[in-house]
């Protein structure tokens, strides 16, 4: 079973790959909208990629208002 730390690291890695940024430039506490300069549509694309990677489905109500990597990883972890 994955730890929250492992899930968080995978979220950061996938976000870095998806938006072509250096993994070292991202941290769990970062607001991904501000850090990556993305809009809500791009955030949905990332969310879809994360759902596919982890084999889960995150309902909209669980991710509404989430904007940092750590909280996103926590929501994912709760579904694993």
- What pattern of helices and strands is seen along the backbone? HHHHH
Total strand segments: 0
Biggest β-sheet strands, sense, barrel: none
Low-confidence segments: none
CATH domain class:
Mainly Alpha
Terminal CA distance: 8 Å
Radius of gyration using CA atoms only: 11 Å
Helix segment count?
5
CATH A-level architecture? Orthogonal Bundle
Amount of helix: 55-70%
CATH topology: Non-ribosomal Peptide Synthetase Peptidyl Carrier Protein, Chain A
Structural class label = mainly alpha
- Going by CATH, the homologous superfamily would be ACP-like
Strand fraction band? under 5%
Q: Please indicate the count of domains.
A: 1
Average pLDDT, to the nearest integer?
95
Which shape, going by the Cα principal axes? globular
Notes on the structure:
- 62% of the residues lie in helices and 0% in strands.
- The protein has 80 residues and is mainly alpha-helical.
- The chain has one domain (4-79): ACP-like (Non-ribosomal Peptide Synthetase Peptidyl Carrier Protein, Chain A), CATH 1.10.1200.
- The chain is globular and about 30 Å long.
- The model has no long low-confidence stretch (mean pLDDT 95).
